[in-house]
């Protein structure tokens, strides 16, 4: 029996994560949604998702980048694949230098773009 890749979505919005959960579930992923990065960390440690999608809200970007930094410093989670969703302006103005530690998805994004990126990071390199 093959288990589905686990996708964790961290987003303080309620509508978009539900839409993403529905789309990704339909594609065969096991999706979990968490409203806040800091509160999600213990759950992520237990879950060890295949990939985490982390949303940075322009209105609260400083908080979002700080939460992302704490998430990336967690020993149990630091090597796990991560997709950061943010506006192009947010990434250019406030984003930390891209160190290769995560993929970015520029908002607004197309669902096919999201699905392609998720498929890419959840597919083993040895296939």
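Sequence proposed for the structure above (127 residues):
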């Amino acid at each position: 029996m093959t288990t589905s890749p686990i996708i964790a979505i961290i987003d303080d919005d309620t509508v978009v994560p539900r839409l993403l959960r529905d789309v990704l579930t339909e594609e065969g992923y096991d999706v979990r949604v968490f409203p806040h990065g800091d509160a999600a960390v213990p759950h992520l440690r237990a879950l060890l998702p295949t990939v985490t999608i982390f949303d940075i809200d322009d209105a609260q970007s400083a908080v979002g980048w700080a939460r992302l930094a704490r998430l990336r410093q967690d020993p149990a989670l630091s090597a796990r694949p991560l997709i950061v969703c943010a506006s192009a302006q947010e990434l250019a103005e406030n984003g930390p230098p891209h160190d290769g530690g995560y993929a970015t998805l520029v908002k607004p994004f197309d669902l096919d773009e999201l699905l392609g990126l998720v498929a890419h990071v959840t597919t083993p390199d040895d296939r």
